[in-house]
Design brief:
Length: 498
């Protein structure tokens, strides 16, 4: 790796830290500023920060790697993600923005669940906070694995060294600037990812005389598109598209909807966010497909399919451009890690520490508690990430399913079904999370495999959680009048905004 590539990465690191310092000086006076940017985030920043924090390192490493190994079967995952993200913008975003403000200005998702049922420290708050901390620690470790692999593959550094470099920079700017720093860095990182995922497949394709030759070379390793659709069974297609269900329950994504400056801005954010997502997903899939053809034609050797983007960045571009493209991978990794750290630390400080110990702390102390939470989650995730044999896509899929099943039905029904009760919410979280863990971790099949080999665990988890919420809610008493009033106020504001 030449010096110019190192210079590009150094500039990127400095820029991220500078943004963190800027945010530190402008938005961390109180808890609302640290956790939600004072609910004054623009639609442009909202859209790209939601996209960048969503896509993470798997966009430039995991998804191209999936296309490399699975072939056109990976298209179903992409389609499910696009549909899920669109429905999230249409169904969740506007109602959550208004409802969280009506619910006594809830700052975190567990806080909203608790206030939604008029229970300041209800069990739903503690349980949902525990689920967030559990699955986000796993999710964060997936990002750190990607960071370690990145530095190992691109720079020849030791895996542990790369892991520590990644976590150090992310923790630094997240500690400094909180939500505003995370959102602004995500915006910049989203722009970098967009350029990279357009540039790499376009340049890589130029190594072939035509698109037909590229597809011919790729066809030596993967089945044609028509055969792929034929050999996939219904369960496999459902499992792949079910990734889209996860959007309704991802705290690090939907917290962006809580922070946007007004409900009227959500339409603009949706248009920007979905356009960004469509282009970047196509670019990631194209990188994997062209990567198969490139390896078959030129035989450079590739031990890890999840590093195909890194291979292209190193061999197709001038070192200065290579440094920029490698920074795109770091951007994808860091954008998600920082969002997850912030949401996890918010739950630790706001939903666990203050709720359990009933501490009445001033705003400055609460912000300090949030920063301590960032360090705590980052430390545990780093220890978990020391196992560098784990697949990035596999780690992400487990955490994504956990959130989608535990929170997805709960978020939707909280916003659209006034009859849901506090007990129903608790039942939904527990049943969804436990179903995902049992389905994905226990070797229940005769051959020692888990049930995930038959169907992605988010599907049974989502179904079980929904049924549990509805049954338990109908068996209990109707919610209080305060909940009904919040629903009416939310509906009125949405009508006024439209």
């Amino acid at each position: 790796m030449e010096h110019s590539s190192y210079i590009s990465l150094a500039i990127y690191f400095i820029a991220m830290l500078a943004i963190g310092l800027f945010a530190y000086r402008n938005s961390t006076d109180d808890l609302s500023g640290y956790m939600l940017g004072g609910r004054q985030v623009s639609p442009q920043v909202t859209a790209l920060s939601a996209g960048a924090s969503d896509m993470s390192g798997w966009m430039l490493m995991g998804l191209p790697g999936a296309m490399f190994t699975m072939g056109f079967d990976a298209l179903w995952i992409a389609l499910g993600l696009l549909l899920g993200a669109l429905l999230n913008y249409l169904l969740v975003a506007p109602r959550l923005r208004v409802f969280t403000e009506e619910a006594d200005d809830a700052l975190t998702l567990p806080d909203f669940f608790s206030k939604r049922f008029n229970r300041q420290n209800g069990s739903v708050r503690m349980i949902s906070a525990a689920v967030i901390i559990l699955f986000f620690t796993l999710y964060t470790s997936a990002g750190l694995v990607a960071g370690g692999k990145f530095f190992e593959s691109a720079f020849g550094l030791g895996y542990e060294t790369g892991l520590l470099l990644t976590v150090s920079v992310v923790v630094a700017y997240t500690l400094l600037g909180g939500f505003l720093a995370v959102s602004l860095t995500d915006f910049v990182q989203g722009c970098i990812m967009f350029i990279a995922l357009v540039l790499v497949p376009v340049v890589a394709l130029q190594r072939f005389s035509s698109g037909a030759e590229m597809l011919e070379q790729a066809g030596r390793s993967i089945a044609p598109l028509s055969e792929s659709f034929e050999h996939m069974g219904l369960l496999a297609i459902i499992s792949s598209m079910a990734w889209g269900l996860g959007y309704f329950g991802q705290p690090h994504i939907i917290v962006r909807f809580m922070a946007i400056r007004s409900v009227k801005d959500i339409k603009v954010a949706r248009h920007i966010g979905m356009s960004w997502m469509l282009v970047t997903i196509i670019g990631a899939l194209a990188t994997g497909l062209i990567g198969v053809a490139y390896v078959n034609k030129f035989a450079p050797g590739l031990s890890d399919p999840e590093t195909i983007f890194i291979l292209f960045a190193e061999i197709l571009f001038h070192p200065l451009i290579s440094g920029f493209l490698l920074a795109a991978i770091l951007a994808a990794i860091m954008s998600t890690i920082s969002s997850q750290l912030l949401v996890s630390s918010s739950s630790l400080s706001e939903d666990v520490y203050r709720a359990v110990f009933h501490k009445e702390m001033d705003q400055k102390t609460m912000v300090t508690a949030g920063r301590i939470g960032v360090l705590a989650v980052a430390t545990v995730a780093t220890l978990l990430a020391l196992d560098n044999n784990a697949s990035i896509l596999s780690l992400v899929s487990n955490a994504w399913a956990g959130f989608g099943a535990a929170f997805g039905p709960l978020v939707l029904l909280s916003l659209f079904w006034p009859r849901m009760t506090h007990a129903g919410a608790v039942a939904g979280i527990l049943s969804g999370a436990v179903t995902v863990l049992v389905w994905s971790q226990l070797p229940l099949l005769p051959n020692g495999q888990t049930l995930s080999s038959l169907m992605y665990e988010i599907v049974p988890g989502f179904i079980v959680s929904t049924i549990a919420i509805v049954l338990v809610s109908y068996l209990g008493k109707a919610p209080c009048q305060i909940t009904q009033a919040a629903f009416l106020a939310t509906k009125a504001k949405l009508q006024q905004a439209s």
